[in-house]
Amino acid sequence: MTVASTAPSEAAQGRKQQGNKLEAVGKEMKGARIFIECLKAEGVDTIFGYPGGAVIDIYDELAKEESICHILVRHEQGAVHAADGFARASGGVGVCLVTSGPGATNTVTGIASAYMDSIPIVVFTGQVPTPLIGNDAFQEVDIVGITRPCTKHNYLVTRVEDLERVIREAFYIARSGRPGPVLVDLPKDVLNAIAKYKGLDSVKVRAYQPTYRPNVKQIRRVVELIKESERPLILAGGGVVLSGASGELRKLARRITAPVTTTLMGLGAYPGSDEKLWLGMLGMHGTYRANMSTGACDLMIAVGVRFDDRVTGKTDAFAKQAKIVHIDIDPTSIRKNVPVTIPVVGDCKRTLEALNRMLEEEGLQWDESEREEWLSQIQQWKATRPLAYDQKDIIKPQYVIEKLWELTRGEAIITTEVGQNQMWAAQYYHFNEPNCFITSGGLGAMGFGFPAAIGAQVARPDKLVVDIAGDGSIQMNIQEFATAVQYCLPVKVVILNNQYLGMVRQWQELFYDKCYSCTCMEHAPDFVKLAEAYGAVGLRATKPEEVVPVLEKGLSINKTVLMEFQVEPEEKVYPMVPAGAPITDMLLV
Amino acid sequence: MSGRNGHRHVLSLLVDNEPGVLARVVGLFSGRGFNIESLCVAETIDPSTSRITLVTSGHKGIIEQIKKQLNKLINVLKVHDHTGTQYVERELVLVRVKADAGSRAELLRMVDIFRARVVDVGTSSYMVEVTGDEGKIEAFLNLLKPIGVMEVARTGSIAMAREKNKGKEARNGQN
Hints:
The structure holds 2 protein chains of 2 kinds.
Chain A: H1 10-24, E1 28-30, H2 31-41, E2 46-49, H3 56-64, E3 69-72, H4 76-90, E4 94-98, H5 102-105, H6 108-116, E5 121-127, H7 143-147, E6 153-156, H8 160-175, E7 182-187, H9 188-192, E8 194-196, H10 216-228, E9 232-236, H11 238-242, H12 246-256, E10 260-262, E11 278-281, H13 288-296, E12 299-303, H14 309-312, E13 323-328, E14 342-345, H15 348-361, H16 372-384, H17 397-407, E15 413-416, H18 420-428, E16 437-438, H19 449-459, E17 465-470, H20 481-486, E18 492-497, H21 502-511, H22 527-534, E19 537-541, H23 544-556, E20 561-566
Parallel strand pairs in A: 2-3, 2-4, 4-5, 5-7, 6-7, 9-10, 9-12, 10-11, 12-13, 13-14, 15-16, 15-17, 17-18, 18-20, 19-20
Antiparallel strand pairs in A: 1-8
Helix pairs in contact in A: 2-3, 2-8, 4-6, 4-19, 10-15, 12-15, 13-16, 17-18, 17-23
Chain B: E1 2-3, E2 6-16, H1 21-31, E3 38-43, E4 49-58, H2 60-72, E5 76-81, E6 87-98, H3 104-113, E7 117-121, E8 125-132, H4 134-144, E9 149-154, E10 158-161, H5 168-174
Antiparallel strand pairs in B: 1-2, 2-4, 2-5, 3-4, 6-8, 6-9, 6-10, 7-8
């Protein structure tokens, strides 16, 4: 691998920052150099980007800087998704650099996706020189205006004196509180102007103070509810993964013996190997037992979730018998979609720590015998309606995922595109650890998975990274094969080729009288040849007995590999809750 | 005041006095389908801070969301909901009213009763300035309608909380 870049340890980061400070602090330099120094101060060693006229000064400085590796993508959308994947796999902040105008507008989908999923990324866009702003100059676009509703915050830097502070604030805002994307727009003249690099030690933003520490009184009330509860259920979301609360979550579940379900974004927060307490994902394509549990529980402890419509179904009918405890760092998530008995504003990890501590201090614990009725009800749901498919003559997509899970022992980092491939990945790949499932959950952006896999592979060169894709979505950012091959990234792409835009086709079959309007993709490239044209390895399986050999071979090659599986065209994702129906009203196979 | 859209709330926001901040606030309302009835913005005594007074309406849950979402904006320093507290609300209105021989006397009487002022006199119309809270303004404009309102310009409401722990009399004396 030519890219030796993993998330540096904190100590290494500290040393690096110290070194930088000594060299550059107090010196006068161009804005473009200040930009580089700020990245170094933030411990950034990798950025994803695409050059252009407005950012050429930064690229000039990048060429002279050895400590920052720039990954040249083939489309700016790929750069943002890669930064997103990098952030999720590394637990750090992803960084992306693009030029003005179209470079900037091409980042919007990626930014919106990171915003919906609360992923810390900082996107730097070039801008025309300040005197030209507003003149409809060449490659000018009001990207700050365009991205205002889909960034956590954004900036237009108009004075070089503000540059250092703004960049440092951008990183601070992106990673603190409920994380999210921050965009910084950099006019060309600001990058060329000279200012002193101060080497700021700390960043403070007036009136921005996320609440990390939960209110103890609220925790006390949660403990009281747990004491009263006979059928508790834990619902964990992306917030648990983001705050690193997975360990505390497991502790809580085992201490009070409460079954656990997660949202799509929460997969991995609780081990999929726990046969007793793990329910699988809930929601529109959740497991039968997870969805039924939401209807039957008397206490729902919701941690780091936002009660998306794909999770709740019809909100009036959601968790009707339950008192709901909602723990989230973002107050706007609480009581936005569902009524809540006890709101707790705080960081998921700190809040669960406090809750576990209080339970421990009071010697409160519930074992399986005390939950027998509840757990046996769940086992019964599981036994009557397990996730299932019938592998006959044509390859079933579920079979491919299941075999992939077996062959990788559930230890790969999985990214997905969006649609059926995403849901099958969520259902049939059983994650045991957080930060291993990388998907565009909120925005649902097709074309996300492959560049995200590239970002994840750069962040974690030690890990096997697999993008699970469909024949439709892979074509939305297929140009990134050139990136993966150029940087020798051994990303694996599994294409479940059903020659349809499968999820929409499924809706058309079920709810639109089988009118398959524009969802048939008969014409696709020869994926194997295409992979080879890019310099990657291409493999194909057309029969069920070829699935395992192709996977085995593909996974063993230390190169970018595309594996195409020609799957049952009309296979559907089940179970399914029709949009707007109560979540317990499931269409089963 | 409670209507189809729920209660009327007067929100007072302190925000960073920077370009784009108003756009963030207004964009939040349009993007999330919240309602703005009036909006008034100007710098405070501290040039780094502006005050936005915003009148909105909605049911309890909506108002809670509006306040939380506003607080979430990085440039919003403080959100205060005056509704349900003791506060003074004022709006300034300029009205051009038809003023012919037959209606002038009646118009001037109205102006006098409402402690308004005539600020421009023309051959066929008077321009009248009036300040007050929403109720007074509405009452005044309704009474002018039969005389002939030609044009109205309103600033939107501004509001300020009354000093706390004062007797009721002192508060009422202000009105």
